[in-house]
Predict the structure.
Amino acid sequence: MNKVLATSLASASKKVSQRHFSCYSLLLLGTILFTLLVSPTLGQTEETNAAVVINTLTHPDLGITASLSLIDLDEPSERRAVGNEILSVGFDPILRRRAIGLSIHGHLAYITSFNLPITGETSSGDNIYIINLEDREFVGEIPIQAGTTPQQIALVSDQKLYVTCAATHEVHVVDIPNRNVTKVLTGSFNKPTGITLLNGKAYVSNPAWEWDPVARKTTYYESSVTVIDTETDVILKSIPVPTNASGILNDGDSTVIIKTTGNYNDIPGHLVLVDTNTDEVVETVKLKLTPGSFALNSEKQLFIQGSWQNPGLLIYDIAVRDWIRDKDNTIANFSNDADTSVSGGLSFAPDGNLYIIQPDWSGGGQDFVRVMDVADASLLRSYRVGTGGSILGFATIVPRREDINNDGFVNVKDMIIAGRFLGDEGAGILADVNGDEVVNILDLVLIGHGL
């Protein structure tokens, strides 16, 4: 930061001198600058802890389109905490637009989306929407080739992300600043869906199924996990796993966890643990059921939704590789509210509580996010969200006016852009970070602190 700041200040001083500021003015600015640099309160802004919900139901007859809801997790009132359907993702219900994947970085949310095709046709309008969660508005989109049906996103860096594309059996490499696809990875994927990043590698789940609309039958092929070097985008390995690998996540250390669901009939699901040091399978756990959603907490306890034959939550300890609660000893209900279902999608919040999202696919409006204290399985809160609320992520939304180009990152690019406005005066200037209607050294300092 010091080098960047020094360079920018040198440029700023040159411009200031060109505008015939006196030496006294420069000295005064230098004094203010020093004070700001050493001030511990500089750049401190109010944060909002939020849950981001994608309401995925699109229903032409009811005029329902996919949308976004925000839950203010710091608001004590369950009703006032929810900003419901603040943005429409689908716009036109006739197109039956699908929102599939969600990835959050800072105050930006990336959502994969496409229009559902007519049977036998390819998808259209395939893209990644970019949403500013602070301003609650669309700030751009990244076009993906039509017919690819983009699924899940993994942010590799502030310059690059991966998106899995199921229909074309590919992973696309996206340049974030330029918002375009720069490379297409092929040859080792079969209906790629899930993706997770760990230790310089990306792990992609390949369910490997194919639907025959004439026979109205799904055929399952050999499922696998593809390993990609995120530095070079080179495919390193394909790891065979049991039938229909779907969800994939990691423990933040050295283990990737894959959930397979089987064929929903005579082939049950499994958990597969892969050691990222060797990229070898170190454990395969037979579930003896078709699992639903799953989520891992900071204690490396994996919570898994059971099937309709075995409802409730199972818990598997990844560290010791043993069950805490198996299919015969599930968490069947909330300890303080037995009448409320614990079924639904699972996500752990940073505070350790388990969020269970329960969509109402009928469009009747009974869509909820329930919050469970896993210490005693008690129900803490219930938030009513939008129709088809089924995808959930968490964000710490910090006002970042320093992010001049609104790409989710405060970096040298923002400093360079701000330098072009140096000395300009007036309301609404892009680079006026502190809002005093003049772009000067103080604005550059604020950007420098954000680096």
